[in-house]
Amino acid sequence: MTRAEFVARYGGIYEHSPWVAEQVYDSALSGEDEALPRLFAQCVDDADDEVKLALICAHPDLAGKAAVSGELTEDSSEEQHSAGIDQCTPEEYRRFQSLNEQYKAKFHFPFVMAVRNSNRHRILAAFEERLQNGRDEEAAKAIGEIHKIARLRFAAMATEKGKDANHE
User: Fold this and answer.
1) So what's the pLDDT on residue 81?
2) Active-site annotation holds for 59
3) Among 70, 88, 119, 122, which residue's beta carbon has the most beta carbons within 10 A?
4) Is residue 100 within 8 Å of residue 111, measured between CB atoms?
5) Helix axes 135-166, 36-46, angle to 10 degrees
6) Which residues in the chain show pLDDT less than 70?
7) 3-state secondary structure 76-125
8) CATH assignment of 3-166?
9) Do 43 and 23 meet the contact criterion of CB atoms below 8 Å apart?
């Protein structure tokens, strides 16, 4: 697989951050697909704080303007849909907006949570809880959640690959 093919396939694993796939490419050539989540996570963990902050900031607000206007990536849209965020009551939607604003005012980056296999009630509770954290703790938590999102995306790709192999 060429670098361009690799980046085209895996560049969206970390939201709007194809640089991760670009940096992992050489290491990934000699490994198995199962090692990719670890290689990608290590690449992010080895990045400097400014790059990690940019990665966090690449994530959309939950129930935010991008979701309402249909501007989310396909993965983000599916993840938010799977958690029922697109089914918020008007009150829940206002609460998401308020919490997004409070969170960004405090931390200067968006709230990030791996929402697949969750629901909007748990997400809102996590918002409230995590607003009590300090900035460094919350940045580390956001990177941990980003790694969870990536692992879930890798798992979804493997599932799709298995389905495709069964249909050949």
Assistant:
1) 75
2) yes
3) 88
4) yes
5) 160
6) 30-32, 64-72, 162-168
7) HHHHHHHCCHHHCCHHHHHHHHHHHHHHHHHHCCCCCCCCCCCCHHHHHH
8) 1.10.3330.10
9) yes
